[in-house]
Amino acid sequence: MARGGKAFKAVAKGMALVASAAAVIERRRRAAMAADPHELPVPALAEAPGPVPVPRADPAPAAQAVTTAVEESPVPVPATTTAPPVPAAHAGLGREHHPGRPATPAEAVPWGLRVAAESTWRLLLLGAALYVLFYVVDMLRLVAFSVLASLLIAALLEPSVSWLRRHGVPRSLAAGGVFLSGLAGIGLVGWFVVWQVSANLPGVTNQAKDGINRLRDWMVTGPLHLTQQQIKDFADQITKAITTNTDQLTSVSITGAQIAVETLTALLMTFFTTFFFLYDGARIWNWALRGLPRQSRFAMAGAGPKAWTTLTAYVRGTVCVAFIDAVCIGIGIDLLGVPLAMPLAVIIFLGAFVPLVGALVTGTIAVLIALVTQGGPWTALMVLVVLIAVMQVESHILQPLILGRAVRVHPLGVVLGVAAGGIIGGIGGAVVAVPLIAVTNTVVAHLRRRNEAGQAVFTALEAAREAAERTAATQPAGAQSAAATD
């Protein structure tokens, strides 16, 4: 947080320096333009040629001769010369315009350079705005993640609330019953995982000890050909690293307590927000619409329901895909004899909420347990093969069939979005990255179609008006008067 504040201050100071330097350059440019010694003067207005001077003694014959010569001469008499108009850009600068110089300094800059410069400062301004937005979100991380998690949970439970409302159940009872049912389901899943781990922990510990001994024997007698002394030195280095970093471990424990408090606060805030989304979601949306400008309300009023439909379809599809992944991987590791198959399946189910990579990352826990408890790499390799096979089925069959219509985002965009969300917000950012991308894609597509439809209607109305004007112009005057009389 402190680094982010320093970076924000540095960016603001840099932008201020750039603005001051630009102001100084502009003042010097205007001063140079006002006092340019190389500026050529504009020729003064030429006076019209006066009468040819003739002797006073005999004026009539001389005047007649001049008039005859002018009329018979093929060369036209030069008219009064006028100075070129001074451009408006130079009128207020106190300088005269030279015909060989552009009217304004901006016209002297090549068009491509002007476009590149204007695009650059707009991109810089947009980047600064995004940085400020992310900085504020990072400061309010608990609130932001609680609201996003509440939206995902509400999108999963809202169809049940709507079904109860359609069958005559009051809104408060429907929202409260579905919310408590979902809360009870989450509690049962957590209790099941804790119960399975505590019940199987002694057996897993004994298997881990035997597996470590067999793994040590394999490292000595296997293809690695390590010695007992090398293995002992490696174990001593690990022990020394643990003992020398006691202070860091203590600080990690303190940080862990702080994280536990923040997690509890986020959970309570998430439950509270989820209930009100289920109970009064429509009024909350209408209140948010009233905060928008009047010109944007109608567009967002149409985009909101479409975004909610996309989010609901995404959450329900993700739950279905995660359940299939957990069942398939759980059956595979159970058949391979890996302990804690059911708790590992639940962990994989939770990890699969991050599309394409979540189940694979959480499945590596099963690979490590297989490596430690089975005492050799072969079972761990088989578990890894099961994970890769299930991931291939998910990416090529389950994702296109179940989530294809809801998300409509290329797999590369999904992977890059998950990576960016993980860098910005950790695990929570990776979870909410893909639904955020899907909802943004839906909203942008709806607004683009709305603008295209509005432009088409405007074009049709203009064409009809022009056709009516042409018909009225070509219609005879008598027919127009008769039509007016009718």
UniProtKB/TrEMBL annotation:
InterPro entries (UniProt xref): AI-2E-like
Name of the protein: AI-2E family transporter
Pfam family, one: AI-2E_transport
Keywords, sorted A to Z: Cell membrane, Membrane, Transmembrane, Transmembrane helix, Transport
Family: Belongs to the autoinducer-2 exporter (AI-2E) (TC 2.A.86) family.
Localization: Cell membrane
Bilayer-crossing regions: 120-137, 143-161, 173-194, 259-279, 313-333, 345-371, 378-402, 414-440
Region (Disordered): 72-105
Species whose genome carries this gene: Kitasatospora cathayae
Membrane topology per record: Multi-pass membrane protein
